[in-house]
Give the backbone structure.
Amino acid sequence: MDAAIVAASARGTLVYFNPAAADLLGLKEEQTGLTLSACLNPESALVQAVATALKDNVSITEHELLLHTAHGEVYVSLTASPIESPEAAALLEVRQIDQQRRIVNEERLQAQQQANRELIRNLAHEIKNPLGGIRGAAQLLSTELAEAHLKEYTQVIIEESQRLQGLLDRLLTPHRLPKLSELSIHEVLERVRSLMLAETPNGLSVKRDYDISLPSLIGDREQLIQAILNIVRNAVQAMAGVGEVVLRTRITRQATLNRKRFPLAIMVQIIDNGPGIPEALKETLFYPLVSGRPGGTGIGLHLAHTYISQHHGAIEFDSRPGYTCFTLMLPLNGWQANLASEKA
Ligand SMILES: Nc1ncnc2c1ncn2[C@@H]1O[C@H](COP(=O)(O)OP(=O)(O)OP(=O)(O)O)[C@@H](O)[C@H]1O
Ligand SMILES: [Mg+2]
């Protein structure tokens, strides 16, 4: 679906809107020249965002906003930015968030993910011990076997149990406590970039589109590297190593993440021009063991989601053939905000 675009003058009057805005916001041609608060509900976040963008000359972004429209209630994200043009002074962009993307941030899903994690964790623990026993016994057996060709069988047992062990270890990792430090998101991205370029022989281009004025962030460096690396690696694998990945960073004001408001957040986007995420996976993409790749374990995005949630952030995606974009939102004072709310 196209974004609804509305242009306003310095006095807050309606200058222009596109057909998507007419449809979503119910704007009509004859309203051109009226103030936005006369055309839309004056209390609405849309009107207020434009007013703030004009007054303070800053860009405002709101995520997961519930909007009442002629078509009923819809979730949207909006950006209001000041622009320099002879015709208009602010541009408002409103995007409807489809179910798939919004669901990622829903509390219900968070609770379900938590339950899934517990289940997997318990199951993984239960499997680990006997698995160690099986492997140990196969190793002993192989030293006792006189006939060399029989060792092939014990070797299969040993290798397969090692593979399972590796899978279980990955499933169990997200549970260590985060190690917090002050870090630059660009350092994290640069590390991911060089790891990825080293892993992929040639044909891969990883472009940077950084906002270098971004402030530093409190977070767990290793977890952030791992989360972003998993997303970038998926992109590279989906493109079979040939294509372009863009790493983008931006600042976002007034971000609502998991129903908490943060005055400032860092937005990181990982964009690729590969085949896109298979439709059948979209609904459950962040669930563990969901994979569309031969040899994939389906843990990469589950881990990324877990790590970003631990940073009080959000992760969502938009994907069609030729364009896949994962957006991470990391609140700048997420840890402080959380400590404060725990005390309250
Ligand atoms: N950028 C992308 N383009 C196309 N498909 C993607 C992209 N990112 C993820 N996918 C699809 O989502 C699936 C799940 O990804 P995830 O990282 O969770 O698991 P995996 O890559 O299959 O296995 P693992 O990461 O555990 O080795 C992938 O198998 C792939 O089919
Ligand atoms: Mg993966």
The CA atoms of residues 207 and 246 lie 5 Å apart. The mean pLDDT is 87. The first strand starts at residue 4 and ends at 8. Residues 230, 234-235, 238, 272, 274-278, 281, 285, 290-293, 296-302, 324 surround adenosine-5'-triphosphate (ligand 1) (CB under 6 Å).
